[in-house]
Amino acid sequence: xxxxxxxxxxxxxxxxxxxxxxxxxxxxxxxxxRATPGDPVDVILGPRAPEAVKTAMREQxxxxxxxxxxxxxxxGDLLKFDLGSSLTSRGQSVVQVIKDYxxxxxxxxxxxxxxxxxIGMAVGMLAASRPGTAFDAGGRLFGIITYAIPLFWLGxxxxxxxxxxxxWFPLGTRYPISLTPPAGPTGLYSxxxxxxxxxxxxxxxxxxxxxxxxxxxxxxxxxxERIVRVNLKQTLRADYVEAARARGIPERRILxxxxxxxxxxxxxxxxxxxxxxxxxGAILTEVTFSWPGLGNRLYEAIxxxxxxxxxxxxxxxxxxxxxxxxxxxxxxxWVDPRIRY
Length: 341
Description:
By secondary structure, the chain is mainly α.
């Protein structure tokens, strides 16, 4: 079988398995939510509401139905691409909740991933190009610490130092309450500010984004640092690199033009695996910095037992991870001709 046909078969198999994976996630989340203690009706009406009113609302929301009937009803709506309505947002649809809150999460995730790549690759290159030195040991230590450090603790530490003590950055939120945020098609404040050629809006958006994005990026950067350092060390010992040195090619050119390109191939693979960690880290970062994103909304929905919102957001996140993973596999096969599926 040719490489192109093998890749097509692999992608087709992944696409066929994607609904099965989503169904499994939806089922597990559905059962776990209903197994946890707490009643969404108590959250909506309050614990002192008359029992007759609570019973009527449970009947209206279908919470009095048997569990299997609730499950079949939800799966039927899901097959019609209906994620339901939020129980705590006055009947707002879950799709609208995702539309309102996802741009903030996407902006945080994109900037965090870009910063993590820059930091991780820079530290990894520095450590790999100087084996056996203090730079190499420092790179190892950097990878271990950033991988092990709790994200929420790092976020609170950065808030304490740079927001409370030094006052350099805001403590939280996405944009000043006193200013009107950029209005645009993307919902990403920094990009919309650029599209409107408004430098003040762009810089303000970056100013409020800097601390949460750096907090999340610092934790993720250790993953890329280890991958780049290990693979670049192996590449620098390859025969073609030794041949390039024998021809008198400068070491910096060998590092950038020859070794670094091949060391980047595993980074593309790790990108797909990191994306799921990125979304999970975004939830902790958003809660820590009061960032009005989808992760923060998910945390609120879990606290309020808002079943449809929790299920809809998790299905949406799972769909993103599946799509990104397939795209990374295709990109990886296109970049590295040695890969076979």
